[in-house]
Amino acid sequence: MTSPIIPSQYADLLERPIVASLATTMADGTPQVTPVWFHYADGLFYVNAATGRIKDRNMQARPYVALLIVDPNNPYRYVAVRGPITQIDVGEIGRDHINFLSNRYFGRPIYQSDNPDEIRARYTVTPHHISAMG
Amino acid sequence: MAVPLPGSFHDLLTQPILASLATSMPDGAPHVTPVWFDCDLTYVYVNSVVGYRKDRNLRADPRLALLIVDPTCATRYISIRGRVIGFSDADTGRAHLNRLSLAYTGQAEYTDDAPGDIHVCYTIEPLHIATMG
After folding, report:
1. B20–A65: do the CB atoms touch at under 8 Å?
2. Does A23 contact B at CB distance below 8 Å?
3. What residues contact residue A131 under an 8 Å CB cut-off, 6+ apart?
4. Whether the predicted pLDDT of A2 surpasses 70
5. How far apart, in whole angstroms, are the C-alpha atoms of residue B25 and residue B8?
6. Which of A22, A31, A34 sits opposite B63 (nearest CB)?
7. In this prediction, does ipTM exceed 0.90?
8. Is the CB of residue B59 less than 8 Å away from at least one CB of chain A?
9. A10: left (phi > 0), else alpha (psi -120 to 50), else beta?
10. Backbone angles phi, psi at B40, to 5 degrees
């Protein structure tokens, strides 16, 4: 089933702190996929990355992604979202967002990074296609 | 030319972990789904149904990315960029599916198919490896 609406019976997959898979596109067109924290609010998905990372460069240059959220208790049940990156907020919003996600996923309100100089960005994904299975 | 799969991540490559497979849509946008896989430490093998979206994507553009996250530690993973170098025949696809079914569910024969589903095993050549943790 594919539609722009997320069926309500999958709402839990959007609320729970599940580690999602984010697919972006490399400059030569090859796909790239990494695990990400995310959150969902008011119909939009938000992911975060440190600037300069591959996913950041890919999302800046080719702002269209796919996000996969699998039920950790049932591998046959998942939501897959495809859509454009419609906003990128670098700096303070990105830093506040990674702290928000750190709290959501780990209960730690300040994100601990290996690199204290890193700059964070929050990427807004507007869902254009939703597949829900299981 | 396949790049070697790192020995320190062989554990993730030889366990029945649900992986994420990313392929490219006709317009170049990414598409990602969960997949079973196995690995002989040179190539990675993924299974699907002929005609599914990922199958159509790969037959048009064989480049893909595969992510395997350590189920005990979300900050440890291996992310492979590669390409399909072989699309199997139906019998090989079915035999591979049954091996995966045994590994992932304990059931030696996969029985969840829709009537008429033809399976295909993709032989994937790793071209670039990224790891974390």
Report:
1. no
2. yes
3. A1, A2, A79, A80
4. no
5. 33
6. A31
7. yes
8. no
9. alpha
10. -105, 20
Check CB contact of A6 with chain B, cutoff 8 Å: no
Q: Do A33 and B67 touch (CB under 8 A)?
A: yes
Length of chain A: 134
pLDDT digits (tens, 9 = 90+) for A75-116: 999 999 999 999 999 999 999 999 999 999 999 999 988 888
CA distances from A131 to A24, A83, B52 (A): 17, 12, 13
A68, B20: Cβ pair inside 8 Å?
yes
Model confidence at B23, in pLDDT bands (50, 70, 90)? very high
Is residue A87 classed as helix, strand or coil in its secondary structure?
Answer: strand
Inspect the interface and report whether the beta carbons of B33 and A80 lie closer than 8 Å.
yes
Residue type for B106, please? G
- pLDDT (tens digit per residue) in B95-107: 999 999 999 999 9
